[in-house]
Fold this sequence. Notes:
By secondary structure, this protein is an alpha+beta fold. It has two domains: 16-208; 227-370, Alpha-Beta Plaits (2-Layer Sandwich). Helix content is 72%, strand content 11%. It is built from 15 helices and seven strands. The protein has helices at 2-13, 18-47, 51-57, 60-90, 95-124, 128-140, 145-165, 171-217, 227-232, 234-237, 252-259, 261-279, 301-313, 341-360, 373-400; strands spanning 240-249, 284-288, 291-297, 317-320, 323-326, 329-338, 366-370. A five-stranded mixed β-sheet has the order 2-3-1-6-7. Strand 6, helix 14 (341-360) and strand 7 form a beta-alpha-beta unit. Helix 2 packs antiparallel against helix 8. The radius of gyration is 36 Å and the shape is elongated.
Amino acid sequence: MNLLAYLIDWKNDLRPTLFVRETMCRANMTVGIPTTIFAVIMSFVLCFRNYGFIKAYYPPGQISLRVGVTIYLAVSGIAYFAVCVYSYMKKRIFLRAAELANYLFSIACLCFGVYLTVMDYRIQNQMYGFFLAALWVFAMLYEHPVFSSLLWAAAYILLVWRLGAENVLTDSVRQLVMVIGFMMLGVSFHRYYIMLYTAKQEKLLQEQNEHILQQARVDGLTGLWNRHELRARFDSFTGKFLCVLITDIDNFKYFNDTYGHDAGDSVLLEIANRLRQVFGWESCYRYGGDEFLVIVPSRDPEAFRKDCEAWGAGDKRLRLEDGAVRVNCSGGFSYGYVEELSGIRDLIRFADLMLYQVKESGKGRIQGDQFDLQFYREAQKEMDKHRDRFAARDAEEEQIF
Length: 401
């Protein structure tokens, strides 16, 4: 079973996710720019090294082939360089273009190494060109194991075939190339799986961070945005015409006391869902307790007023375990143009003032108007007087009892 699980994991690793592919491309592009510049320069230097001797010793067909391979390496290097630079400029990864450019550049490097070695082996009896090209591809770039295996097999066959055609191939050379080839593949596989593990850990960490951030922004019970997210969005509200609604559940304590807190949570959740259906998920916040806040950037206050009235008049009959109950909501709304952060707070306080007046006049209604600073200040003073009177009465009762 362990072997089967290992084979299944290994098969899945050969089919990397989009995030892993993007991580590999990002890592390859980091070394892609200096690599392509160096490869293009060195290709022309090495191609025309000992060119006079090669021209006199080799037939024109082989010289043209060497020049053609050099041009292919230069073109693929320039293309890969262009993809890397363009991706950095746009701050995004063009995945298919980057992968294709990487594959073409890797093939060009090994082809150039093969034909450089074939030409130089007879002249100088050395194979540095092929080994350096293989080291460059398999130790500098992250390659998929299937691609690197096929690439190495093709390069090995091509090198052995060309050296055999030049009558310079020996068993020791063949064995040396094979041993070094397996070493290069081992390095390539090892780097791939390190990158795969790193990408998986990075993806897991990113998902955990997103989950923590989501928990910090969203109310755990209703799924609406919370006050932390509201404060974070304050800057985005400035310079806009806003419509604000504050609504709460009438006699919510009755549901908790009569049916239990689980029923109270069910009422909150159902009211939040219905509020989301009317105003949209992005605009709704749980303001605290049984209070909900709606902020809609809109220049059509009449449409918002109709939505508020529809919310107040809508059927809110809920089904609990002990039977169906009807829930009434009260609300106050305001609207106006917001120039600075204090304007947002004023709109919210004005809507809260409208809600307070609804509560004082019997509940179960929605009312509001355009923000009026003078009216707001006078009404606020009246509310403060009520609060002072209630506070004095409570203090007197505490002294009596």
